[in-house]
Amino acid sequence: MKRTRTAALTVTVAAAVAALTPVLGQAAATAADGKGEGKGNLPQDPVGSGRSWSKDQKHKVEGEARFHPGVQYETVTRPGTAAAPEWERKTGNPDTLAWLPSYEFAWTVSDVLVNKGLTTKNGKHPLVLHAVLRDAGHTAVAEVRKELAGQAATGRQKVAGNKRIACDTGDYTVEWTIERPGYAKVGGTLRWNSSCEQYRTAFAAEHTGK
């Protein structure tokens, strides 16, 4: 009897689709006004960065945001090859593909010591992490907001999106911000395409045993 199970992609999906993972480092962009925008080689896992100063130019927030689509799918048990039919294998079912995004934020908070011209990255700080996922019509389809207290001047945190996004539903925009309340806020936009075609093609090849 065939069995199915649900699997989530974290770092890799499976050997058959590992080659599809984009190089994140090539997607980064930096802007002095905090309007970082990531484009990347492929439409998955975009990343953007930026920096922003407080009005008095004595406090700075540098930030980076990464959007992790997090593909999900069910697996089905397939018989082995003609030469070894007893060796069953589990392969992805392309009809069950969907996205379950998450958001990763990284920050650096710094202060300029008055009359000394030195920049320090010390102390504990409150921060607000925020991201909105919008469809092609600019409608918000998912949103995350997390208020943090007592954070180190340099840190990183991943926030689950907890919102399933269907495959092949078009282009999306991620609006993100990292705020140090009362001082400065950095943010930008990321572009993402929800196509699952590459994964579907890879799974189809597995189903035929190629």
Total helical segments: 1
* Proportion of residues in extended strands: over 45%
Taking all Cα atoms into account, the compactness measure Rg is 21 Å
Reading the helices and strands in chain order gives EEEEEEEEEEEEEEEH
Number of strands: 15
Q: Looking at the structure, what is the overall shape?
A: elongated
- Mean pLDDT across all residues, rounded? 77
Regions with pLDDT < 50 over 5+ consecutive residues? 1-43
The major β-sheet equals: 5 strands, antiparallel
The structure class reads mainly beta
First-residue to last-residue Cα separation: 24 Å
Number of domains: 1
Helix content: under 10%
Keywords: Signal
Biased composition (Basic and acidic residues): 53-67
Signal peptide: 1-27
Protein name: Lipoprotein
How does this structure look, described?
The protein has 210 residues and is mostly beta strands. The chain has one domain. The protein has 1 helix and 15 strands. Strands 1, 5, 6, 7 and 13 form a 5-stranded antiparallel β-sheet that branches. A 5-stranded mixed β-sheet has the order 2-15-14-10-11, with no helix packed on it. Strands 3, 4, 8, 9 and 12 form a 5-stranded antiparallel β-sheet that branches. Mean pLDDT is 77; it is low at 1-43. Residues 53-67 have a biased composition (Basic and acidic residues). Keywords: Signal. Residues 1-27 form the signal peptide. This is Lipoprotein.
